Amino acid sequence: RNRRLTADYETNTSSSEAFIQLAMIRLMVRRLVN
Predict the structure, then answer these.
(1) Can you give the residue ranges of every domain in the chain?
(2) 34: three-class secondary structure by DSSP
(3) What's the CA gap between 13 and 24, in Å, rounded?
(4) What is the pTM of this model?
(5) pLDDT tens for each residue of 1-34
């Protein structure tokens, strides 16, 4: 059970990191446009 929890946590952190990067890029693009 613990192994599955850690695996889920790892996937969640990696996906959240990608999401944060996407948000940062969006902000940068908005600043460039404006």
Answers:
(1) 1-34
(2) coil
(3) 16
(4) 0.54
(5) 667 777 777 777 788 888 899 999 999 999 999 8
